[in-house]
Amino acid sequence: MKKILMVALAAVMLSAQEKKESAPPVEQEAAVISVKNLNGDALRRLSNMLGVITRSISYDERMKVIMVYGPKSTLEQVRKVVAELDKPASDASRNIEMTLTMLRCGGAASGTPLPADMEAVAKQLRAANLCKDVHFWDMMPMHLQEGKDAQGDVTLPNTNPPVPGMTATLRVQVKPESVNTRSTGRYVRFDRLQANLNIRISTPGHSTERGTGINTAGEFKEGQKTVLGKISGAEGDTAVFVVIAIRVLE
Predict the structure, then answer these.
(1) 3-state class of 239 per DSSP?
(2) In the beta sheet, which residues pair with residue 231?
């Protein structure tokens, strides 16, 4: 029995000695790493990839930063991977096809018939008492890239029946900040979406010009038509509803 106690005591003393001689704990640091080019799903995939290096990592999609905690060597590894993958015009940036449709409400009693895919939108406008007579005016397609500013201009056709001397132009400025995938589908978040309508009516000896528009931001679902807003005051009692539809290109 005495021999067993002596062996156990020796083992405890040896273990204590090993702990004293073990290397000191590695110093841990925190770092915030900015991401300049990747957005949305691309930023999320990068964060998941960095999880192989360390589990103490997170990211903020709005601020476009990655937060990491660990030894200095780990932080350097993370910085190196971010620098290699966060490139301008990265393949991770998605191409987006956006279509804006202008619907006129009020004014002339007749107008261009609605396309079939706009009937559901017109039904919603009527049900909400926003517009009784909805007419198609024009459509503006734009090709966008995730994280990039874009601008487009279009001269709209005269109304049906036409207004003598009228010229209408639409300028659109957008920035699709990121593409995000969820269980319910893909969404595009816009940091800025502006649609400015300018109408000029020129008659002999007289000219009038009015400008108004929509300035908004938000997230829109792929494959779903959404009313951005209402532009009013540009032409008498006529209002224009702008409808957005987006498609993310593979």
Answers:
(1) strand
(2) 240
DSSP annotation string for 182-233:
ETTEEEEEEEEEEEEEEEEEEETTEEEEEEEEEEEEEEEETT--EEEEEEEE
**pLDDT at site 198:** 92
SS3 44: helix
| Predicted pLDDT at 98 | 97
d(CA 224, CA 111): 25
| Interaxial angle between packed helices 40-50 and 72-85, expressed in degrees from 0 to 180 and rounded to the nearest 10 | 150
pLDDT score at 121: 94
Gap between the Cα atoms of 151 and 175, Å rounded: 9
SS (HEC) of 79-126 = HHHHHHHCCCCCCCCCEEEEEEEEEEECCCCCCECCCHHHHHHHHHHH
Instruction: Tell me which fold the domain 22-93 belongs to.
Output: Ribosomal Protein S8; Chain: A, domain 1 (3.30.1370)
Nearest-angstrom CA–CA distance, 215 and 206: 30
Q: If we measure between CA atoms, which residue out of 146, 140, 198, 195 comes closest to residue 175? A: 146
What is the percent of the chain with per-residue pLDDT over 70, rounded to a whole number? 84
Which pTM does this prediction carry?
Answer: 0.68
Residue-level length of the chain: 250
